[in-house]
Specification:
heterodimer; A: 141 residues; mainly alpha; 6 helices; B: 147 residues; globular
Chain lengths: 141, 147
Amino acid sequence: MTIDWQNFTPWASLLGGVLIGLSAGVLALRSGRVLGVSGFVSGLFDRDDEWTSRLMLLAGLIAAPLVVGLVVPQSAPIPDVGWTTVILGGLLVGFGTRMASGCTSGHGVCGLSRLSLRSAVATGLFMAAAFATVFIVRHLI
Amino acid sequence: MRPLFSLFVGLVFGIGLCLSGMTLPSKVIGFLDLSGAWDPSLAFVMGGAIAVGLVLFRAARPRLAPPSNRIDPALATGSVLFGVGWGLVGYCPGPALAALSSLDPKALAFAAAMILGTVLHRLIAALRDGVAAFGRRDGGATVDACA
């Protein structure tokens, strides 16, 4: 293994991480809600009095790259894989995160911050599966 | 949650995702690819988020329902399926939504498939709970504790 120094962005990534932790933490403090993107997406299909708030949070998330783009030019966040892989990956991410009741934000950020063993197991497993998948797809096939 | 406050939280969360590099599938794959030239940046995202999160979630503990500690086959299977999808394309749910504003066809297709996967799981869960509830007297209350 070699380190890819050219693409290494420790400070920007750390700052981004701090903002992610800050927004999730402030939502928990103010609203008593755990910020999980997959759960909020699924919650769009639940008609309750939190529906508008969930939609607004997701709207802010969708609008964020446009706001950042006003200040820093953004490179296009486009996957470099074929259509079949895009669709299959989307289905797996949507179905898997709901089956596990959480994704990178709900289990990875919020759950680990709450020292939840359940979230630690989930995070360990999805990270391991992702590392293994990249190794198989990019190096073995 | 109040709507305007939620919008603001989503915006800061999304700006964090953009700055961190999590929204770039190539950077995510660069992190997940240990055997090539490895880009460790995303470990700093997790580090920064959890460092702040530990403090804020500790303070928020009285406001939150205690986290579930149920570790079951659904948690394990779901996490592995999610990890495979993440590794295949490089999008997890947050970045997949943030990518929508690019209007790139593949980004749109991924988000659509992700939402379809979500709906599929809801349908299966509803069918299963419906059948289970049919045989029980308690109505089959469902638990959906994220973390």
